[in-house]
UniProtKB/TrEMBL annotation, chains A, B:
Listed Pfam families: LacI, Peripla_BP_3
Gene Ontology MF term list: DNA-binding transcription factor activity; transcription cis-regulatory region binding
Protein name: DNA-binding LacI/PurR family transcriptional regulator
Source species taxonomy: Bacteria, Bacillati, Actinomycetota, Actinomycetes, Propionibacteriales
Keyword set, alphabetical order: DNA-binding, Transcription, Transcription regulation
Chain ranges of the HTH lacI-type domain: 3-57
UniProt cross-references to InterPro entries, sorted A to Z: HTH_LacI, LacI/GalR-like_sensor, Lambda_DNA-bd_dom_sf, Peripla_BP_I
Gene3D superfamilies, per the entry: 3.40.50.2300, lambda repressor-like DNA-binding domains
Amino acid sequence: MRTTLRDVAELAGVSPKTVSNVVNGYLHVRAETRTRVEEAIATLNYRPNLSARSLRRGRTGVIALAVPELDVPYFAELARHLVAAADRHGWTVLVDQTEGVRERERQVIGGFRDQLIDGLILSPLALTVADLAERTDSTPMVLLGERVHHGPADHVLIDNVAAGRDATAHLLGLGRTRISAIGAQTAAAGVTARVRLRGYREALAQAGVPFDERLVAATPRFHRADGAQAMAELLDGPTRPDAVFCFNDLLALGALRTLADRGVRVPDDIAVIGFDDIEDGRYSVPTLSTISPDKRQIADLSVDLLDQQLRVGAAGRADAEHGPQEVFAAYRLVERESTLGR
Amino acid sequence: MRTTLRDVAELAGVSPKTVSNVVNGYLHVRAETRTRVEEAIATLNYRPNLSARSLRRGRTGVIALAVPELDVPYFAELARHLVAAADRHGWTVLVDQTEGVRERERQVIGGFRDQLIDGLILSPLALTVADLAERTDSTPMVLLGERVHHGPADHVLIDNVAAGRDATAHLLGLGRTRISAIGAQTAAAGVTARVRLRGYREALAQAGVPFDERLVAATPRFHRADGAQAMAELLDGPTRPDAVFCFNDLLALGALRTLADRGVRVPDDIAVIGFDDIEDGRYSVPTLSTISPDKRQIADLSVDLLDQQLRVGAAGRADAEHGPQEVFAAYRLVERESTLGR
């Protein structure tokens, strides 16, 4: 007779649910319990029938996270939070890299691998609202970030205008008046940069500080190298800034490196603030002030929205009844050495 | 009549192969060509029949990369190289996080999602040779790293003993004699730490410098926080080191932060070298000397081994004829400010 999950539970002295949790690789099982269940599985030579289970549910238990770049720490940290949030629903997360290329993003939303996944969380860079409107695939999907604001899909974001305003106001509050912005972008993909720049301009206006275009540095991307180069150009420019708001932490870490090379004191001569609160900035010298989006909340909200869509689908309700939701996650200003000193 | 790929090629004035490349989202197509093909696709309302294609090949075109932690920069950077290498074969890479938990790693090798993927690249932390020997799933697989050396699977690694020796010899060459090692591990999973420690000891022995256990700091993990704490404990210990070999760059970045907090000059008072050559260390203050594994080569070798296995499978040859291969990738010593000064 074939060994059942119940047999394993009995031998291990745990509930069938616990055996199921171990078999599914859920991480919240205590190590000692896990060992006991594994020993029982080995003793009875139990083989869980995973594919039958998937078929019964009509699901694979796998969701995809598609991001532009895997090695950008913000996305890597967000991915970790999403893996944890998905684990609470018993889902495995597979991560896909789009490079921000529109055709790849279109494929992702087009059901490119609809037989593989139950749901999709996508952080688009190039996708248009029209691309989304044309979508016929019905795989549950949640979008992250600013790119397709007010589009026809559930959407999780933070208030980037307010956050940009807060970062700039923090620098103004230190008495700085020649505040640079690094990370402006002219490309269509630069929606995030545009809203952060709007916040920067609003804060300047509120403080009565005139906007000076020469203090705004455009960058092709949001990498350390871009920040290092933009900072060098600003130092060589006509108006030397006394503070810099970088539109992400990588740009700020690049800027800090250039300032160290030039012997500029931070924050005494130039105060620096970033955006994202990646771990690097908690260990850099000096540590980096930043805007910290609540990544855990972004992950939880995204997974919850996906779960809602799956439930709606399961209940057979019409999609039309369930309009797209736009949910804001929290953020906070984190003040560290790069603006406050030691 | 249904629009075919050939119709699109004709309208766009390109070869059917180029249309196929665009449809598959391969990244080596020139932007201008891509646009022309996309316009032709839109004009003709062409819908590629992806699932039929997958069925014909009997493949999904998807390979999985399973790593312990997505937000460890070494794995994130390796993932990016693997995505590029896989793209040259027309494969999409999905990344899976195991947390280094043995049961999750066992599932990954056990064909947990064998219907989803054509091949698997796994960087294990907890998996045993016995786990591998028991494997019945036949999905092509390549292992990375030191964990299951000489196991029954294709395997890509670098010579960690030699690399550990080179890192230590570099510090000895600066005239340092009280050289600490940070990152020793006692857990079974600490195979990488053990081989790097062996290299450290060999270099000391070759230089006639006695091994001093009090200079070796064990850490629970390889994160920045571990390096920061270990460095603090060494500074408070009986023998103050004049150099530190950290078993990865994150540990070294944590150590640098502690040294800055304590006002210790790097490299004047203490020289620091890491391991991995992650981008963070090229922008830190000071920049970080390190061992740089050739991540691009590791990625290329892994994908090539997977491709070989797929071809062997396709040709119907017996697996037995194709013994497991162990392939070494290159590494080099990179000397920066944390050992050489500015």
